[in-house]
Amino acid sequence: MNVNEIIKDLDAVQLIELKNYITNELLDICETKDSNSKIIENNTHNKICLCGCTMSKNGHTPTGVQKYVCSHCKHTCCATTNTVVYHSKLSFDIWKNVIDNLIDGFSIRRIAEENNISILTSFNLRHKVLRAIKKYIDNIKLSKSIQSDEKYFSINLKGTKPENMPRYSKKRTSTNSPYKGISHHKICVVTAIDEVDNIVMNIGGLGRGTTKMLEEQLGDKVENVDLITADSASAYQEFCKKHNIKLIAIPSGFHNDGINNLAEINGLHSQLEVWLTKFRGVSTRHLPDYLNWFNYIFTIKKRLDLKNIKTNSYKNIVVNENYIEIKSICNIPMPIDLNVAYAEYLHQ
After folding, report:
1. Contact at 8 Å (CB) between 144 and 226?
2. Which of 57, 196, 254, 282 has the highest count of CB atoms within 10 angstroms of its CB?
């Protein structure tokens, strides 16, 4: 059904009647329990079973959600299984508003106030959505010419109970580490951006960037890359040699060599730093999700018209099968090894 063609055949009176009908019915449609499942069903061509076979439709649940069954292994599921709205009783309206709020960069407290939900629910919904974004981010590939550099963050143990701290608790300051400069108390985020604004932004490990970090975070992303502009660190020289990529090395301490520069990657790091300040400290445990969140917003704004960003984002996020249970949100593994970061405390 092509909606645009149907609307073109309507006269002015019919269009007004259609507008009034949609206005009156929209609220009820958006608040029904199966509103999310219908969107997922309409945007999913084939439901794939765990065994790899295509599943067939198999009736509906009492609330109207489409059910599926695998003819091979007889496994059953529904349209929302393993999606961000799985087991959720919230309507499309709430989920859409939460996703819109996240794109606008709202805090947990403000999302709760905007949607009349608790702060705990707001926290859980945010991290469910951020986990769903990960699948979209993981599919990003770099191409042609890229700029790459590392961004360093201090370790943040926000939310960690005192008995689980790897070191003694102390007042939070801008520089908690006794070490100056880049050390094993700094988190290395490997970052790269290509000429069409595709971004890779992942935690590589602790301390200064190494060839191993670059390989783990960029190795499978540079299949179509022929030029990397980066600093003169030996890690990039070894990485480019292995992947047969031309390297333009900017001298240490400079942003350009007179012709080439690192303006794009430095600008990206500046935007990230400013964007993160609104959250008043991001836990290292959840930093990968926030990096994906920033990456998604930056990328989607380059790809779509402003008027289509939020509706397309809802479909991208809700349809993706990347479900996380609420009990698992606070137990997400640390992306770094705290035993290495605080080895000197453990031996005291």
Report:
1. yes
2. 282
